[in-house]
């Protein structure tokens, strides 16, 4: 119906000898400005247990890794901060027997990630073993 009224208005104005006026754009509603992203996200050190202790021992501080859980990336480009070494072989064997430390329970690695990613890592580790891929 709106199109029919516009066509009728054009016909009437053309019949009266007036040139048709150009159609102007409908003014846009102003949108709320998007809040600025923080320039520097708050990074935290997150200790994670890598399922494959041998793979974890390949890591060195400063390495960049993707942390994976259940075939999905949980933390992309995390920076390895520390790869704690076992105090001695006896404690490593004891920890492996208990399912923590190295061996069966994997190995501890400390990574630097944004605070929200640390929470995601914690949740992912509770549900499935973690793995790393070097970037």
Could you walk me through the main structural features you see in this protein, from its secondary elements to its overall organization?
- This protein has 135 residues and is α+β, with helices and mostly antiparallel strands.
- It has a domain at 43-134.
- The protein is built from four helices and five strands.
- It has helices spanning 2-15, 53-56, 89-98, 115-127; strands at residues 43-50, 64-69, 72-82, 107-114, 130-134.
- It has a five-stranded antiparallel beta sheet with strand order 1-4-3-2-5.
- Strand 2 (64-69) and strand 3 form a beta hairpin.
- The radius of gyration is 31 Å and the shape is globular.
- 19% of the residues are buried.
Strand order of the largest sheet: 1-4-3-2-5
Low-confidence stretches: 87-103
Gyration radius, in Å: 31 Å
Percent strand: 25-35%
By helix and strand content, what is the structural category? alpha+beta
Count of DSSP-assigned helices: 4
Overall body shape: globular
The oligomeric state of the chains shown is: single chain
Summarize the main sheet: 5 strands, antiparallel
What distance separates the N and C termini? 60 Å
Number of strands: 5
Q: Could you tell me the mean pLDDT?
A: 76
Indicate the percent of residues in helices: 25-40%
Q: What series of H and E elements makes up the topology?
A: HEHEEHEHE
What is this entry, summarized?
It contains four helices and five strands, in the order H-E-H-E-E-H-E-H-E. The protein is of the alpha+beta class. The chain has a five-stranded antiparallel beta sheet.
